[in-house]
Amino acid sequence: MVKFLREAFLWAYPPHCMSCRNAIDLRDKRRVRRYLCESCEPLFVPMEPPYCPKCGGPSKTGACRSCGSAETSVEKNFALYEYDALMREIIHRMKYRSMEYIAKGLAQLAADCAVGDGEAARFFYEGGFSRLVPVPMTEKKLRRRGFNPSLILARAIGEKICVPVDDSALVRLSETVPQNLLEPFDRAKNLGEVFAAARGHEADG
Asked: What angle is formed at CA 52 by the lines to CA 46 and CA 53, rounded to 5 degrees?
């Protein structure tokens, strides 16, 4: 019954492409899951090496200009797609217009990369992860946006690689200045001592 109602809802309100916003053919389950139509999918350009070893962005000379020699505790970061004008506009619509379907579509794109044949897939395959921990939002921001993109991403990847998601392991201690208002060198400092392991949780990485 639930499946029937869901199918009926999709036929009445077909999903739209997160790029061009046109309706997606319901017969194409893969594109429905990604919220990405056949015409727009080629516009999403996968990242190709060489990468910056810190942020995962494009760089031909080691650390990119934004990262420089800044110290970080992040072991590995991936930029799965080029952050061009299209991707920037889509992410801004997700964040500032509270479009949850875009978060779900981007999460499925990332999840597919996690089981593909690229570096991200090798990282997840060799990592031996026991759980995925999404980054928590403040209650104020969560109420305003209505969803946590990090949690949606973690659930999509976790389902693909069969690793459980623990959304109670990390707590946010304080509000911060929005990262987009800061220079690259100040962003790491802005997040210092903002997160902590929740009581009863232990983390080794």
From this structure: 115
Give the C-alpha distances (Å, rounded to integers) separating 155 from 146, 158, 165, 194: 16, 5, 6, 23
Query: How open is the CA angle 79-171-149, to the nearest 5 degrees?
Result: 40
Q: Roughly what angle, to the nearest 10 degrees, separates helices 119-127 and 149-161?
A: 70
- List beta partners, residue 171: 196
Radius of gyration of the chain (CA): 18
Largest interatomic CA distance in the chain: 57
0.70 exceeded by pTM? yes
Convert the pLDDT of each residue in 20-30 to its tens digit. 999 998 888 89
CB 114 within 8 A of CB 78: no
Residue 50 has which token pair? 């060489």
